[in-house]
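Chapter summary example: a protein plus 2-acetamido-2-deoxy-beta-D-glucopyranose.
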Amino acid sequence: MFKSLLNRLHHYFKLHPILFCIVVLSFGITLLIFVSSIYENHVRATVSYKKNDLVENDVYPFAKMRNLVMVAGHSVYTSSDCGKVDKEDSWFLESYQKNPGQAATFLSHIQEGVKAAAKDDESLLLFSGGETRKDAGPRSEAQSYWAVAESKGWFGKDDVRSRALTEEHARDSFENLLFSVCRFRELTGSYPQNITVVSYDFKEERFAHLHRSAMGFPESRFFYLGTPASLSSKEGALKGEAMVRSQFQEDPYGCVGSLWRKKLKRDPFHRTIPYPNGCPEIGGLFRYCGSAPFPGSLPWDYTRLA
Ligand SMILES: *[C@@H]1O[C@H](CO)[C@@H](O)[C@H](O)[C@H]1NC(C)=O
């Protein structure tokens, strides 16, 4: 077969020597262009890989921060007037949240978070919470809290502003914690030494025990700042909390049943969650679903005694 091909080529060469040369030449040039473009792409990929490497190793914007202060979001601020942050009708409230004094509790979470961060200049303050309310439009709880802190002049602690950022995807309290730890790694290049969570006092057991142990984070480096619920909402809040807590007891990672369905409802705008990009070391924790604690190893395992 190869021989017959050669014979045929020879025949064409004899018949149209010039045309034959042109065809062979253009075939050769095409091949050359093809090969060189593959080579170029390869070189480019290698170069950009090196660039990423550089970013990974050297230039995290908050590489000096060692501790995380996380304020868990509960609502989205919807008023166009920043002067009314402590009024209920400035916030998007679910029916169970519509109580006098509710807005003031959000404000005190923000203030507590800023105060805690101000006391520790190695801390990064993260407001955490996604675009959870359809009727509030595509604005996140985290952005709302940051904007409120800004409108309040950071409660006189101006230096906190440059260390206060957002985690904009969490749909429940476990995600507030997990996603913020991932965000911390993304911003600093490492995992927090100490974690301080700011939320309602009646959620302490949920955060400091259930969520913290689901993440295998050492108790000695976990702190909780709780503020009271508004008086009128207290009874309902405690009942609701008991129910959610028992759901998390059975489903600590919130990945099946009602906790899972609640998360889907709290994502009306179908935001793609970027994590565990930014925190590859704990990717397993993001993928894990089970009622027993995550069995894999975690970056803070080795520092439990530190
Ligand atoms: C973490 O908290 C403990 C207890 O308050 C403290 O002694 C330690 O210095 C903190 N670590 C960092 C890195 O701030």
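Key point: The beta strands are 67-72, 76-77, 91-92, 123-128, 164-167, 195-200, 222-227.
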